[in-house]
């Protein structure tokens, strides 16, 4: 049962366990992130976690015991609470959960009041360590909560695991592993009914059988099932099956467990890369942090749906959940939409990272104590809970046991030779000068800590494979030359390289039996080029798919503005597409792509070479070393007469022609641009730039117009109809326009947003990393003429809602139907 409604919240350092719910408690519906509801403080809080506060929060909810009393088992399932949470029922402590990303549950049956009586559930969340992460984590019960009620002979939480060990053409043999627990006071015989529905909803298999178990026993069973005329789960056709397992005793239903699954097969080959359902393909992936921009870490499913839809449109086929287990709703969407998923367990192991400077620990203070502080005690529990909860998702094809862990064991860094006085190269762009044997000798000669990276990696891998051997185990290795010889790589089925494309050949030559892929890569053409040219590299994950909050480090005295987070995404905080998006789409899809950007020549990274009569890089070959952030350009065609402007066009078409007001400025060929960016130097003139090219005989055209003052607002909705479930959301994209209807990108205006009817305003954003407007504000200044408004339905309220945007004394409205 959905257990998200009816909660009350209070931010307080006082002990509120025995305090009743009163008027000063805030009524909330989960998921809830209290941190995003506070004000940014760029002077006193931490850029590492987005300049937002932590604190201690209390949640309370009252509910009634089931009328059936002792005949019912009740479990409380949390998908994630950030963090250090203690859960109480009627004042009795159920348990403590330190890690903020793994799911957990409690059997609350023994603690409930008699049938029909009221119970009080209390959750204390201690987020006083407000700099305990390298990114924005949020605070509170930020993922879904469910109540699970069963009879006494039942399937435990996460008690069904479906695999497809044999697939032969259109036939698949399923292995259904299921647990049964008999809490009756005597031996009981249960009747089980298994039903499987196909992707279209029709029942394709139905079987029943009986099992006898003694009182108090918990046993694991296996059931083999054969399906014919199967439809496989894949990137383009993510076909999902539904399995239902019903348990009955003496003709009465005790439990019904339902789970979706997919039929697919994949493998990695060290020489030829990745195969899904027999097809060799490249993994075109992005990394995603778990925040949703203005909604913080309590992300409505529809927010993820919009973001994933844009990434899918851009050719993305895989997602790495960095650097922690994913929310169940995000995995559901990846199943439904056809994304491969790398589910990652940890960012820290035995030793902490520096939350402010990203690498090895450089200071020790309470507020930055993260998951390393309780890793020894809780790692196995949290890892196994994640695997059990997530292993039926067909989208998951990799378990990642860690992210850039090597920094925290210093001899890994020292053994590589990159930091020697005579290294003679750049760690980022040069392969190591040392052989594996030399690195191993250096590593062994250096002093070791109490825990070694190899031993811990092999322990984590073994725990994972205790529960699931159908996926590969990988890790994101920042120092692969060391990881190969320290026992770390021996724990992996696929080794992931973090920003080490220059090491692909080294790894394949020296360790040819271990498959390689990029698991954290720059959003640049040169990164994809390195993968595309090497059949043995399975693919990559770009950093990142979407701009994320936190990791906004600011040095004292710096003239650069403070940032609310990182800006390396293909999409910005509001989900608007950036130049990197169009570059990757031009590489990852067959769709004809034309994207125009402009910049005054004195601000451009390019210059005009009069002798060669062409635009060239100011620093020749700089594109080969481009990192996360693209040079600043403009979307507009609004300059001053006499300005010399560089026009840059990203395209996958073999040739393009640029014209201004109908006059051709020259035709160019893609083969002449090593950086895959067409370039023209154009003396500015007001009017219309047109770029056109042909793709298989079909004409593709893109325009950029000189715009006037903003006179209108174009509102674009992603959904015009919402369910009255209190969780569905609609995104309203706002674009300024001039009197002719041309987009205005060169001017910004202050917008005021109001909603009425059965709608709630979740907040506003403009996508800019320097935007510190309170997310729940009703006012926002556009950035490059754009802004985003998110509204949500109200539980149980139907009707028509209206979103109104006021700008310059004008009003613009959109209606949304809620049913």
TrEMBL record:
Print the keywords alphabetically.
Answer: Glycosidase, Hydrolase
Q: Where is the Glycoside hydrolase family 2 catalytic domain?
A: 274-413
Q: Where does the record place the DUF4982 domain? A: 642-698
UniProt xrefs under InterPro entries = Beta-gal/glucu_dom_sf, DUF4982, Galactose-bd-like_sf, GH, GH2_Domain-Containing, Glyco_hydro2_dom5, Glyco_hydro_2, Glyco_hydro_2_cat
Q: Does the keyword Hydrolase apply?
A: yes
Gene3D superfamilies documented for this protein = Galactose-binding domain-like, Glycosidases, Immunoglobulins
Q: Does the keyword Hydrolase apply?
A: yes
Give the Glycosyl hydrolases family 2 sugar binding domain ranges: 55-149
The Glycoside hydrolase family domain extends over: 714-807
Residues forming the Glycoside hydrolase family 2 immunoglobulin-like beta-sandwich domain are 162-264
What family classification does the UniProt entry report for this protein? Belongs to the glycosyl hydrolase 2 family.
This chain belongs to the protein called Beta-galactosidase
Tell me which species this is from. Echinicola rosea
